[in-house]
Design brief:
three-stranded antiparallel beta sheet; alpha+beta; globular; about 150 residues; binds zinc ion; 3 helices
């Protein structure tokens, strides 16, 4: 099956792009990688950005192409059921695919943001620190890691 995506250079390094128009809601790819603990992630320094948090002490050391998906404060994709990258709206062929990293972060990790969106928050932070309306929007869309929502509901 031909891939619906391709990897290319973008303004923050390499990124994942749509090879064809992707309809809203479609699965783009599965985010996969070996399991890491929080300690493993912390020992990786700058490479920590390649880890996807899927539990309080559970991370995936993302493999390509999933690890090349960049962050945006105004994303066109999101992560559903912890590892499923889905289109949040229709994505045009040639458009870079990005999700909001804050929807997958509950630890203290932060990253200065250079996403370039008009609504850029300037800093990528844990989900709990997002504005309430934005947290609710992502939750309604099902684009928040399950362990984060479980912590909020507990
Ligand atoms: Zn931003």
């Amino acid at each position: 099956m031909p891939s619906r995506t391709y990897v290319a250079d973008c303004d923050v390094g390499r990124g994942l792009f749509a090879a064809e128009p992707l309809p809203a809601g479609v699965e783009i790819l599965r985010l996969t990688g070996s399991l890491l603990s929080l300690n493993d992630v912390r020992s990786r320094g700058a490479q920590a950005a390649n880890a996807l948090q899927i539990g309080v002490d559970r991370y995936l050391n993302l493999e390509e192409p999933g690890r090349l998906v960049n962050h945006s404060c105004e994303p066109n994709a999101g992560v559903k059921d912890d590892t499923q990258l889905v289109a949040l709206r229709e994505i045009a062929a040639g458009e870079e695919i990005r999700f909001d990293y804050s929807t997958t972060i509950s630890d203290g990790w932060t990253m200065p943001c250079r996403c370039g969106a008009s609504g850029c928050r300037g800093l990528v932070v844990a989900f709990q620190l997002l504005p309430t309306a934005l947290r609710q929007r992502y939750a309604v869309l099902g684009l928040v890691q399950r362990f984060i929502l479980e912590a909020v509901e507990a």
